[in-house]
Design goal:
The protein is an all-alpha fold. The chain has helices at about 10-15, 20-35, 35-55, 65-80, 90-110, 130-135, 135-170. It folds into two domains: about 10-55, no CATH class; about 85-170, no CATH class. It contains seven helices and no strands.
Length: about 170
């Protein structure tokens, strides 16, 4: 017998189950004759197999497999529905239209005449001139841009809420 052959539990279980080839069976038989503690381990494995085979099997309850398959189908369907694309094109359309309005406002503001070219002269006030702050085009268009972003966020939240409500209606 070769000196490099070592028996382990996996090989012993395969021997007990009859999964080994004839050459492997002969090597395991020779090893078991040489080492009686492994023969005892084989007897314990065979006793365990007999105990497993002696255990009565319960019949599955009627409809069990149907319930399992239905649960599996709803689980996979929920993942499929969750990955479905929403109506994002509405958000893109609204943001495009608002972007065009913003661009149009900048174009119109650029085509206006400068305050020095106006026919009426502005009176000088001894107090601080608030019209410089509130008349600033950057502030005006910045506020317009900020309101446009807030409106987009509001529309997005509204559409998301509608999507969730539709999803709840289809599930319930």
């Amino acid at each position: 017998m070769e000196n490099n052959f070592l028996l382990d539990d996996d090989l012993l279980w395969d021997y007990a189950d009859g999964f080994l080839t004839e050459a492997e069976k002969l090597r395991v038989d020779a090893y078991l004759r040489q080492y009686p503690e492994w023969q005892e381990r084989l007897e314990a494995i065979l006793a365990e197999k007999r105990a497993f085979h002696a255990t009565p099997l319960e019949k599955p309850k009627p409809g069990f497999s149907d319930r399992v398959m239905a649960a599996w189908a709803t689980e996979t369907h929920a993942n499929y529905v969750a990955n479905a694309k929403g109506k994002d094109w509405i958000i893109y359309l609204i943001s495009s239209v608002l972007g065009l309005f913003i661009c149009a406002a900048f174009i119109v503001a650029g085509m206006q005449a400068a305050p020095t070219n106006l026919p009426v002269e502005m009176p000088k006030m001894p107090t601080y001139d608030w019209s410089q702050i509130f008349g600033n085009q950057i502030l005006q268009y910045g506020l317009f841009f900020l309101l446009a972003l807030i409106t987009l966020k509001f529309v997005e939240k509204y559409l998301e809420q509608q999507r969730v409500l539709d999803k709840l209606k289809t599930q319930g």
